[in-house]
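S.,

Sequence below, as promised.
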Amino acid sequence: MSLFRPMLLRARIATPARRTCIRYSSTASEPVVLPRLQSDLKNALRAKNKPTLTAIRSLQADIINASKTAKPITTDGALYSLIQKQIKGSTTAISEFENAKRDDLVQKEQEQLGILRKYADEIPKVEESEIDGLIQAAVKALEEGKRTFGSIMGRVMGGLKGRPADMEYLNKKIEQAIGRK
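The prediction came back faster than expected:
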């Protein structure tokens, strides 16, 4: 065995080191809010901030549930859509609690809604001017008879490439484009 040891050492030294190639994509943006959720949860635990704790825990539970599906949440764009779903659920819950005259639950939901909106505002979104440009390009690309809401929306969403955008503004602008053209 001792005769083979020097040969093994020479073989390790003689082999060239493997080169690794790191690709950088300028189109994919780094997540801003997603990696920070865990540290925010720890800070909320230390501060004993119950509304923040419940909001972040519900976000993390939805992220974990989505990781078991075909489309896991890995970008801020996907996280933005998840936060928007939770905001919509919270606003419906607030209206139901107000109808039931449960002011204590309304207050809890409003605190959680504020936290969710804070996270949604921190995620960088597509500018309205860029959305307007995409809509105008989609309208020009389509023939007069084929300008429907769905066809324009499909082209605009293809241009957005998964980046978060204000969907209410987008829907309003597409309806305006269809109405005047």
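The domain at 34-122 is CATH 1.10.1510.10 (Hypothetical Protein Yqey; Chain: A; domain1).

Coffee later?
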